[in-house]
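User: I'm curious whether this sequence folds into something compact or stays loose and floppy. Could you predict its structure so I can see for myself?
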Amino acid sequence: MGPAPAEAELDESERRPGRRTPRSGLHLGRIAGIAIRADWSLLIIFVLLSVTLGSGLLPLWHPAWPAAKSWTVAIAAALLFLGSVLAHELSHALVARSYGTEVRRITLFVFGGVAELEREPQRWISELAMAIVGPVTSLVIGIACLAAARSLMGHIVLDPAHPARALAHLGAAPTLLLWLGQTNIILALFNLVPGFPLDGGRVLRAIVWGITGNLHAATRWASTVGQAFAWLLIAAGLAMILGVNVPLFGSGFATGVWFAFIGWFLNSAAVASYRQLVVREALEHVPVARIMQSEFAVVPPELSLAELVDRFFLHSGQRAFPVVEGGRLAGLVSLGDVHRADRTRWDATAVRAVMTPAGALATIGVRDDALEALTILGRRGVSQLPVVEEGRVVGLVRREDLLKWMALRGGAGRARGA
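Assistant: Here's the prediction. I'll summarize afterward.
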């Protein structure tokens, strides 16, 4: 897929205020200091590739192979393909870093992968470099695999008119490399389609940005092309489901469903990418002090949970209260914290016993901009942030405050209508 800014969506959340929400998936380690994570949906593409190769393509190419050999090569091919996707995303991340943009993590998922950038590229040339390096990496991997396969084939020559005859004589290694090379070249070409948020769409955005000097207009153009390409995939998928023979791809229910599903995903991603830009433009350089709630209640750490509920939660619209001791922020207590405590012991349980301590909280300063607040909300999986100045809580900034700001500036409407 390519690089993407890791900004939060402006939707309400019931997640626990102030605490990090565990992310789904598996942490695979770090490469060049970048966290590598596999989403559980990656199992779908792994299983799909393994089954397609192990029970379909490899028995067709090698009818004499035993089933165990076909499945072993199929699983190896699926793992190597996922490794090549990781290399594709890692190239995005390393080029982004060379242009001063930090990369939080790389996540592999059912549609490939995404390098999550801390922020959007600041110049069109950096956007162009980051976008084009992914397809180039896939193309290089593909050509290298094909070259390696050719060297291992020896005197075997593939006859385009009768390819099955030559394929049947290939060993496991050249077979694997031949498939992997072709697949990476297809991946490179697919990503070069000029539809946002594919790499080709980012290349298009960079070029339009460079010509016009207008990132907003460039993103709108690239997003529109991306949506058009997505709807083309959806239409092709529906046609294939109905039995229509689509040029180059044929027909078939399963393939059609897959095409339509990819089209739906790309359309959603194109709309979301444009929405992110609208959000960023509305919130960047807006100080938190302009948006935060400056009138709020605080509670002492020794207050009992029964008093907290009776005096504060029942008579306030606040969903969480800063806990203040000696004038300084000691923690944050939410209704969820109260619910997790033993109801029969509310009278004897102090707020201190259930609150999230200040050291575990995400906070923000009054001079930080609202976009940073939004980024922290998304990164930490929280619904509000204490605004802290020299250890003292001076306000609260909530998701609904950001929504209200967007609505008053007209940004939320533009984002929804993208």
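Summary: The first strand starts at residue 2 and ends at 5. The two ends are 20 Å apart (CA to CA).
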